[in-house]
Amino acid sequence: KHELAIVRKQTAELLASLAGDEAVAELKYLLSDRSNSVRLAAAKGLVLVAGANNVADLIPLLKLSESEARTAAANKVAQLAGPQDIPELTTLLKSHSSIVRRTVAAVLAYVAARQGVSNLKELLNHKNRSVRSAAVFEFSRIDKEKAIPELKDMLHDRSLGVRSNAVTALAKVAGREAIPKLKDLLKDDKDEVKRAAHSAIL
Length: 202
Prior knowledge:
Blueprint: H1 5-15, H2 21-30, H3 36-49, H4 55-58, H5 67-80, H6 86-91, H7 98-115, H8 117-123, H9 129-139, H10 144-154, H11 160-174, H12 179-184, H13 191-201
């Protein structure tokens, strides 16, 4: 509550070196400070001290305009979030910011991958194309035998961006095995897909 923003910022940084519910509570209070630098310090501090029981406090940080703090929050949420946090994360997919939507989509896909292939597979049919695209990326990081059939299916997604990402992911996972399928995509009616297929073959 000190009148100088620099003092409040230093307080936030000091709290970040502590642990426990009291530090979390004070950092949450500073998130509403009138100074942007104080709010940013509080956000970064909260990411550092938050535990599994503080995920709900971290989710609003995914809306931050400052990329470093937003990315740090996203990484922490992705590691800690469970099924109970999915509804709140999903509401952020309605954000007017494409950056926020992509950030949340990546978090949802990572959380689903942590919970198992079946959960991740469900996201391939999500109505939000950012979520489907993020799920495609996560599939490129899992077991080859499980990934290839799903990625081949996503080559026909209604979203151009998802199809292009599926091309890249399939090439990464399947290697030379994917070349016949990728050659077919050289005839795609969208230049972006054709370019992705051509690059993947090379």
